[in-house]
Structure formats: C-alpha cells, structure tokens
Amino acid sequence: MPDSVKGHISGQGRQSHAITQALGGTKTIQPLAPHMGVNDLVAPSRWLLCSDGLTDMVDNDAIEKCMEAADLDAVLQLFNLAMVAGGEDNLSIIIASIN
C-alpha cells in the first residue's frame, strides 16, 4: 500500500485486532461485562458505530472529515477509504442521526 493513500493507517497503527467479548458461539453460558455509559441525547446529533475494519484502516482525521458529509455520502466515503487502504478486515459502518 503506497504511503500516499490519504487517511490510511499502517499495519503498526492497528487499534485492535482481537474479539474481547461476543454473544453466542459457546456451548456454555459465558458472563458478559458490557461497556456502558450514559450521555444526554442532544438533538441534532450524529453517532458513528463502526468495526475495527474501519478504524484500523482509516485515521481519525479522515473519519472526521468524512462525517462532515450527509449520512449516505459519509458511509460511502468511509467505505471507499477503507477499501483503498486495503480492506484487510470485515467492515461495519452505521451512522445514526438524531434530528
């Protein structure tokens, strides 16, 4: 991957690579310790929910720049950046807009 790909994170910059918790997949019940928090919901606001398939491939500045676009355009831009950067992992991108 050429260094000239804007927004790309090199392999050394991975933020995560291991599943730390999952629902299902085992024959016995496993206790979960979900990461939870409470925030006041301010309208309008936007939330990005994504997998490490995005954050390991695209740097935060590029993600923030894409989030300036409308919802669908932002998702498409984020997807394209991850693919251009190599698309090395599964990818989930959800933008929730609260109006």
Main features:
99 residues, Phosphatase 2c, domain 1, two-stranded antiparallel sheet
Radius of gyration: 16 Å
Order of helices and strands: EHHHE
Taking strands numbered 1, 2, ... along the chain, how are they ordered across the largest sheet? 1-2
What is the 3D shape? flat
Overview of this protein structure:
The protein has 99 residues and is of the alpha+beta class. It is built from three helices and two strands. The chain has one domain (11-98): Phosphatase 2c, domain 1 (4-Layer Sandwich), CATH 3.60.40. Helices cover 25% and strands 12% of the residues.
Layout of helices and strands:
Elements (H helix, E strand, L loop, with lengths): L44 E6 L1 H4 L4 H7 L4 H14 L8 E6 L1
Antiparallel strand pairs: 1-2
Précis, in short:
The protein has helices spanning 52-55, 60-66, 71-84; strands at 45-50, 93-98. The protein is α+β, with helices and mostly antiparallel strands and 99 residues long. It has a two-stranded antiparallel ribbon.
